[in-house]
Structure formats: structure tokens, C-alpha cells
Design a protein that fits this description.
The protein has eight helices and six strands. It is of the alpha/beta class. It has two domains: 49 residues, no CATH class; 148 residues, Diphthamide synthesis DPH1/DPH2 domain 1 (Rossmann fold, 3-Layer(aba) Sandwich). Helix 6 packs parallel to helix 7. The model has no long low-confidence stretch (mean pLDDT 96).
């Protein structure tokens, strides 16, 4: 029985979609060298359907501004292309391009200091900041069925649950122009994304070991964290 193909861009040996260095006048790249699992080969109708979404004026303009912002993160110098903008500065510039004034900050309680710093920066750049911490609501973890031994705190202690649904609904009610996630836990961030009804971006994701830089585990996966690459038998 033939194995069903599915997109696996993370295994692509050619990356023909990038068409890097080709002249724009030559048109799109040939798919001749694309692997059989390339989504451009497997799902052309679906990609065409997705592309039609950009014909909606508001989507087209948002995508255009995002691409303009992407290009502005680089500068051409005599010795080549260089990067120049940290993500926080990108956030400020992109929000201005979109005409956003009120930003929602959904942050983890463990990153309270970072939330204060980011709020200062955004407010100093003339944004209104609506911020909601993950423990909003002061609901005990027992409310969602946690047993005492499953808590971080000692079993007999109170422990407030993270409440990403409340964070999202507050953002929705406050009618923020864009929500910004700062360090929500895995799973909690998923719920926030699910219930948030406004445009959303991420300024940082949580990684308790690597100072909220999860890619460090990838960069050290052939040395200190090689255990991550061990194949499960």
C-alpha cells in the first residue's frame, strides 16, 4: 500500500519556492526540482484558494505592510546586507504603519518585570497599553481539576491558575487594535490564540531554561542538548 504524501517543507533539499537570485521578469520558479512532498505539487488548488484571500483589500494591505516591515529590517551596505531592527522596534514600527493606537499586552506573571519595561517603551512611543497578567481572576487550580500533587506550590498551598481565556476576553472587550503575547506558557498561549478575536503577534515565548530563547536548544542539540536528537525506539 502506497504511503500517502504530505507536505514536509522542513525536509526539502531544494527550496525552489524561494527562487532566490532569479530575475523577477523570469516569473515563478519551475517545480521540476521540487520534491514530491512539496505542497506546491501536492495541493495547487488549495494554495490558489489561499492566495485569493489576498484579494480582500484589508488582507492585501495588511500583508503589504508586513512585507514592507520585513524589508525595513535590513539595510544594504557596501559590504552586503545587514540586519538592523530588534523585534520590539519592529513591533512599534509595524503598529504605526497599521494605524494602531491601543495595544493589548497579555503577559505571564513570571515576566512581570519585562512587561513593565515593554509597557514603558510602548507608552513612551505614544501607544495606549491594555495589559492583562495570566493570573487575572485569582482562580485556584482546583477549579480546572488539578490534584494537590500536580501543583507547583506545596499541596496544601493556594495556587492561582493561568487564565488565558480571561486575558483574551478582556482584550476583546477593551477593543485593542492588536494583542501582544509575552511569555505565556505552552498550552496557555494556545488558548489565548484561540479566544483572542483581534490581530495578534508575539514578542517573546516562554523558555524557562534558556531565558525565553527556545532556539538555543536547537543550536546546542548537537552538543550539550544532544539528548533531544535521540530517536525514540
Amino acid at each position: 500500500m502506497a504511503k500517502k504524501q504530505y507536505p514536509r517543507c522542513g525536509r526539502c533539499p531544494t527550496r525552489v519556492c524561494e527562487n532566490w537570485g532569479a530575475k523577477a521578469s523570469n516569473g515563478p520558479p519551475s517545480l521540476e526540482k521540487a520534491p514530491a512532498f512539496c505542497p506546491m505539487k501536492l495541493m495547487p488548488e488549495l494554495l490558489a484558494e489561499a492566495l485569493s484571500e489576498y484579494d480582500k483589500p484589508e488582507v492585501r494591505e495588511f500583508a503589504r505592510l508586513a512585507s514592507v516591515q520585513e524589508a525595513e529590517c535590513y539595510e544594504r551596505l557596501p559590504d552586503g546586507l545587514r540586519t538592523k531592527l530588534p523585534r520590539i522596534e519592529e513591533l512599534i514600527q509595524f503598529a504605526r504603519k497599521c494605524g494602531y493606537r491601543r495595544l493589548g499586552l497579555a503577559h505571564c506573571g513570571g515576566l512581570f518585570s519585562e512587561a513593565v519595561l515593554l509597557t514603558d517603551i510602548l507608552e513612551n512611543n505614544d501607544f495606549e497599553v491594555v495589559s492583562v497578567q495570566c493570573k487575572c481572576g485569582a482562580v485556584p487550580k482546583e477549579r480546572i481539576g488539578l490534584r494537590p500533587e500536580e501543583k507547583i506550590a506545596p499541596p496544601e498551598s493556594w495556587e492561582t491558575m493561568c487564565n488565558p481565556i480571561a486575558q483574551a476576553t478582556v482584550m476583546n472587550r477593551a477593543e485593542v487594535d492588536m494583542a501582544v503575547m509575552l511569555g505565556l506558557c505552552i498550552g496557555h498561549d494556545t488558548l489565548f490564540i484561540k479566544y483572542c478575536n483581534v490581530p495578534l503577534t508575539v514578542i517573546a515565548v516562554k523558555d524557562r531554561v534558556f531565558g525565553h530563547n527556545p532556539l538555543a536548544a536547537l543550536y546546542t542539540s548537537e552538543t550539550y542538548y544532544r539528548r533531544l536528537r535521540n530517536k525514540i525506539e
